[in-house]
User: Fold this.
Amino acid sequence: MKFTFTPKNDLGFEEYLKMVEELSEQRSTTGNDKTEERAEFTKLNFHRMKRLAKTGEIYPEFAETFRELQEPQHWYVIVESWCGDAAQVLPYIYHITETNSNINLHIILRDDNPEIMDAFLTNGTRSIPKLIITDDEGEILVTWGPRPEWPRERMARFIRERDSGSDVKKADANKEIQLWYGSDKGREIQSEIAELIRTVSV
Assistant:
């Protein structure tokens, strides 16, 4: 299967970070639903991404896998500025792409690119962030997202409990997930993506 789409507003990481900074200053957000809550998340996420862009690092046990890529690849990451998972994941993907000039990063917005998002749904939902990796000819090699395993399982548990009638709050699950990201420091993100890369590099 080939990636045949032409993304709207294809951004590099620095461009995207600058855009989110400007939106946070304007108390605005990306996406179709420009609520005050999402504007607040955008402001918070700008500071998260800025910090992780400076402090995040690639662990040596995964760096070699990324540095060994010999052929050009294109990494498309679907995000929105209000998404807490995207803010935690995207800086590490950026750091990965910086290890090898063969990796070309493309950051695209979900609501600006519905035809792309709808081709890469997760269990029928437009969940982000979503990473799509292609070769230089557009052949799709692997996809990843929207979360590493622990946050994915935690959110799945919240949905099961909510659907069973339990009085659980999504905000509590999201808080646990954000704390997990802080303690994990990008290790699981790198591990999962490195494993996918190995499967297509053999």
Notes: Strands lie at 73-79, 103-109, 130-135, 140-144.
